[in-house]
Amino acid sequence: MSDLRTELVEAGLLFPTGVDGVLGRSAMFETVLEQVNKAVSGWGREAKAEAVHFPPVMSRTQLERNGYLKSFPQLAAELHGCITPPPGSEPDAAVSQTGLMMVPAACYPIYPMLASRGALAADGALFDIYSWCFRHEPSIEPARLQSFRMHEYVRVGRPSDVAAFRESWMKMAAEIYQSLRLPHELIVSNDAFFGRSGRLMASSQRERNLKFELVVPVNNEREPTACCSFNYAEAHFTEAWDIRMSDGSHAHSACVGFGMERTTLALFRHHGLDPERWPADVRSVLFQS
Ligand code: AMP
Ligand code: ZN
């Protein structure tokens, strides 16, 4: 397989910025990505998900409470001012803390918002959330970005409802990739938890089938790329935020995250660099509206 990044750059679909994992995109790339997003959004509307929007930054304290800084400190990024103080000035003026971090996954800001609403309804909640995300994992591969977009559906509620949500979305997501004629497979996976205790967490997550990924060959056939993830968090976030059902028990939560750039890249990889020449059925899914 030829080098996808070089092909996309030469075709004018992606623009290098000089920083690995930070790529500019052409109008055509964005058009395809937006159409993929519309296809994903259609399923959310049918499921009557509540759409909410947050900026790509969030409170450090909240991200800490979500457990992110313990589990993935290697991926996290904090924002601070960059005043260079004049020589001899107070050291306090050197760095101004903003108290903000980059959002690493679209679902993180949902939990503090939900906690502020009080007890959950008996049938729980379902959110549709779309956000720019940041992870400090610089790479030359176009499918491993530092700054990318994620469209997520987050279900919070009774354990049986949350498990059923994840099951049904695994089927629906597979149908979306099927309709886009992208070869795909569902596999058990794990997150890149940090450090030695992280390895234990990763193997327990895997053994307990808490994370599935829908993978598509993007960079190469040997290591297909996760384009969509199905994460069952059990009561991890709801205990952190004390989100309870009306009977007092902690709710469970799960999220389904579509990687927008990865799915778009998969389309260019499998159907060619000119969307006008893509198979008619794929074009009708993407460009019908
Ligand atoms: P995760 O929260 O790790 O399960 O990620 C959810 C989805 O976001 C994945 O299935 C990918 O499609 C996408 N994603 C995760 N990390 C990256 C990255 N570094 N670059 C591009 N897309 C990513
Ligand atoms: Zn999530």
Structure keywords:
about 290 residues; alpha+beta; seven-stranded mixed β-sheet; three-stranded antiparallel β-sheet; 10 helices; 12 strands; about 25% strand; binds adenosine monophosphate; binds zinc ion
Summary of the model, kept short:
The protein has 289 residues and is α+β, with helices and mostly antiparallel strands.
Question: What would you note in describing this structure?
Answer:
The two termini are 33 Å apart. The model has no long low-confidence stretch (mean pLDDT 94). This protein has 289 residues and is an alpha+beta fold. The radius of gyration is 20 Å and the shape is globular. Helix content is 35%, strand content 24%. The longest helix is centred in the middle third of the chain and has 21 residues, at 159-179.
Q: Helicity range of the residues? A: 25-40%
β-strand number: 12
Order of helices and strands: HEEHEEHHEEHEEHEHEEHEHH
* Overall pLDDT: 94
**Spatial strand sequence of the major β-sheet:** 3-7-8-12-11-10-9
Which stretches are poorly predicted, pLDDT < 50 over at least 5 residues?
A: none
Tell me the β content: 15-25%
* Main beta sheet strand tally, sense and closure: 7 strands, mixed
What are the distinct ligands in this entry? Answer: adenosine monophosphate, zinc ion
Report the span from N to C terminus: 33 Å
| SSE class | alpha+beta
Shape: globular
